[in-house]
């Protein structure tokens, strides 16, 4: 049986700034949002009807990258930009 290697990081040793840059340029995350949240995340976006479920792709540091109506499109955009997409709830 092989042993798994794990790394533990103490929370006091990672600054919020370092955590924000973790995965930068390599990881993006997909998050389901409501259309009512679009103006805060994407100020330049046109007005969208309320009550819609949308998907936002964010850079590892939280910067919004794109908005779409399907999770698959968000993941495909991440892959086309050579980013590993992860989901958040």
What are the salient characteristics of this protein?
globular, 4-stranded mixed beta sheet, alpha+beta, 89 residues
Strand content: 25-35%
**Unreliable spans:** none
As a percent range, the share of helical residues equals 10-25%
The string of secondary-structure elements, in order, is: HEHEEHE
Structural class: alpha+beta
What Rg do the Cα atoms give? 16 Å
Annotation, overall tally of beta strands: 4
- The gross shape turns out to be globular
- Tally of alpha and pi helices: 3
Strand order of the largest sheet: 3-2-1-4
- Could you describe the largest sheet, including whether it forms a barrel? 4 strands, mixed
Mean pLDDT: 80
**Straight-line N-to-C gap:** 34 Å
Which helices and strands appear, and what pairs or packs with what?
Blueprint: H1 16-21, E1 27-34, H2 38-41, E2 53-59, E3 64-68, H3 71-80, E4 84-88
Parallel strand pairs: 1-4
Antiparallel strand pairs: 1-2, 2-3
């Amino acid at each position: 049986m092989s042993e798994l290697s794990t790394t533990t990081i103490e929370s006091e040793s990672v600054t919020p700034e370092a955590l924000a840059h973790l995965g930068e340029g390599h990881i993006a995350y997909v998050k389901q949002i409501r259309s009512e949240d679009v103006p805060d995340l994407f100020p330049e976006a046109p007005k969208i009807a309320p009550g819609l479920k949308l998907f936002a792709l964010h850079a590892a540091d939280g910067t919004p990258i794109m908005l779409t109506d399907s999770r698959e499109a968000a993941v495909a955009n991440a892959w086309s930009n050579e980013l590993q997409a992860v989901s958040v709830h």
